[in-house]
Design a protein that fits this description.
The chain is mainly alpha-helical. It folds into two domains: about 210 residues, no CATH class; about 140 residues, no CATH class. The C terminus is likely disordered.
Length: about 475
């Protein structure tokens, strides 16, 4: 039977540990890179959503709302009569602000609650100051470990029944002397008891007064906060209503099936491109998260298992100091780097394919829009990603044809023109015309300018006070 020396075994373990440490460092670096890129994509998606919101609803009037609802299929939105709701809310805000203004707790807020000169604040400070002597008496007595017993047995009164020969009697007597000594001018525990009674009543009186003052102060401060919040809402009611309605419309667009929404927007190429950009960026972030979780997750599970095996081998070898049988040793020096490298290459290809994609207009050329196939050109399986899995479940007969990504006007071109679209990952000229890009940018800019002009001409946000 052949054996491998312990020194050789330990050297092999050390070499394998270096491989695992290197892979762990690569995983950490990849996760950090993904985190940084994800932040960039979140920023880009936020801008895409903002542009889409501005373009889909330039103004908050009945005609603009009806047009937007018609485009995106949100048929119930015009019936809500949002402008009328805003006017009703504006009237209620004005009425409530006037009521708060008339409330003495708000109208006299400086006289009542100024930190230094307010009547409630000075009264609270005085009550807290007057409470201190009584509280100090109670604190001094309650800190003594035997005070409560002395009060309970009625020490120094007829209620005291402890016989003089018991040890507890002399303990109580010593405790009473100690407590009397804490109060100059007092000679008996009965005087201390009376002092405690008066202090308790005084403290309770001031506690009730302090609670009342704090309640009035809290109620006044609550009115201050309510007025500030309602006044801010009143001043920005139109802008907030417009922003809220835009977000509702865009949320409906992004939660609807992308293929159907893209078809509904076919009459407005610029708005359609803004939608495809926002939709694609959202899917892109989800895909990259799924790719990282699936691929790096497999590696992260494998490394600890390998590390545990090496720890076991090293522990046994060092404890016994004996050689290892060749039959058990033969798998230990196996070079796992090619296997890891294969995983990294697979991960890198899929991740890069999705990460580098930015040709959102390609969503126009497919009937059933699944961004995964458009970004990867159908080369990779994405069933481990929830969106891809659900899409295939809902569309069991779906089949992706890369030729659908070509402009329909050139789909049947002759072979001499096929070179223009041979690589669907390149920036082909017929993918996105500069006119579409300019139209989308102009549409978002027009919405921005209309918002600004509307705010300049709207004089209804005057001070309600």
């Amino acid at each position: 039977m052949s054996w491998v020396r312990a020194e050789s075994v330990l050297q092999t373990v050390a070499a394998q540990r270096q491989v695992l440490e290197h892979e762990h460092a690569r995983i950490t670096q990849a996760m950090e890179y993904h985190g940084a890129e994800r932040k960039k994509l979140e920023t880009e998606r936020a801008q895409a959503l903002f542009d889409l919101e501005q373009a889909v609803l330039p103004r908050l009037d009945a005609s603009s709302i009806a047009a937007a609802a018609q485009k995106v299929g949100l048929v119930g939105l015009p019936g809500e009569n949002i402008p009328a709701q805003l006017e009703a809310r504006r009237r209620w805000l004005a009425s409530r602000l006037q009521a708060i203004n008339a409330d003495p707790r708000y109208a006299n807020r400086e006289l009542l609650r100024h930190p230094r000169t307010g009547s409630l604040m000075t009264a609270l400070a005085e009550a807290q100051e007057l409470r201190k002597p009584g509280a100090e008496v109670l604190r001094t007595c309650l800190e003594h470990p035997r005070f409560e017993r002395l009060m309970e047995i009625g020490f120094g009164t007829e209620a005291q029944k402890s016989p003089w020969w018991r040890y507890s009697y002399w303990q109580d007597r010593s405790a009473a002397k100690e407590l009397v000594a804490q109060f100059p001018g007092k000679t008996t525990f009965a005087e201390v008891r009376e002092e405690v009674r008066v202090a308790g009543e005084t403290t309770a009186t001031y506690d009730a007064e302090i609670a009342r003052l704090r309640g009035e102060i809290a109620a006044g401060e609550a009115l201050d906060r309510e007025y500030a919040a309602l006044y801010d809402e009143y001043q920005n009611l139109d802008a907030r209503g417009l922003d809220h309605t835009r977000k509702r419309i865009v949320q409906h667009m992004l939660t609807s099936e992308a293929s159907l929404m893209s078809q509904r927007l076919s009459s407005s190429s610029a708005l359609r491109l803004l939608f495809l950009r926002a939709s694609g960026l959202g899917s892109k972030i989800g895909y990259l998260d799924g790719i990282q979780r699936q691929n790096l997750g497999e590696m992260q599970k494998d490394l600890p298992a390998q590390q545990q095996k090496l720890d076991t081998v090293e522990k046994r070898t060092r404890r016994r100091g004996a050689p290892m049988r060749i039959a058990r040793y033969k798998n230990l020096p196996e070079d796992r780097r090619p296997r890891y490298e294969k995983r990294w290459q697979r991960f890198g290809k899929v991740y890069t394919s999705v990460h580098s994609f930015d040709r959102w207009d390609r969503g126009r050329w497919v009937e059933d829009l699944l961004w995964w196939d458009i970004m990867t050109r159908g080369r990779y399986d994405g069933s481990y990603i929830h969106e891809v899995h659900e899409f295939h479940r809902v569309h069991p007969e779906y089949h992706f044809d890369p030729s659908m990504l070509k402009n329909p006007g050139h789909a049947h071109a002759s072979d001499d023109a096929s070179g223009d679209t041979s690589d669907l990952g390149s920036d082909v000229s017929n993918d996105l015309s500069s006119r579409d890009e300019e139209n989308a940018a102009a549409l978002a800019a027009e919405a921005d300018s209309s918002d600004a002009s509307a705010l300049e001409t709207d004089t209804r946000g005057t001070d309600a006070s």
